[in-house]
Amino acid sequence: MILQIFTLVGALGMFLYGMNLMSEGLQKAAGDRLRKFLEAMTSNRFKSVATGLTITSIIQSSSATTVMVVGFVNAGLLALNQAIGVIMGANIGTTVTAWLISLLGFKADISILAVPLMALGFVMSISKKERNKNLSECIIGFSLLFLGLSLMKESVPDLKQTPEVLSFIQGWTELGFGSVIIFMLFGTVLTLVLQSSSATMALTLIMMSMGWIPFHMAAAMVLGENIGTTITANIAAAVANTNARRAALAHTLFNVFGVIWALALFKPFTMLVGNIIAAMGYPNPAEMSYSGTIDPTSPESTAALYGLSMFHTLFNTFNTCVLIWFIPQLEQIVTSVIKGKQNKEDEAFRLKFISGGHTSTAELSITQAKSEIQHFAQILHNGLGYVRSAVHATKEDEFEHFRQKLVKYEEISDRIEFEIASFLKDIPEESVSENTRESINSMYKIINEMESLGDSGEAISRILTRRNKHNKKFNADNIRNIDAMLDLVDKAYVIMIENLKNDSVSMLGLKKAVDCEIQINELRNILREEEINNIEKDGSNYLGSVYYMDVLSEIERMGDFIINISQALEKK
Question: Is there a contact between 141 and 24 (Cβ–Cβ < 8 Å)?
Answer without folding.
Answer: yes
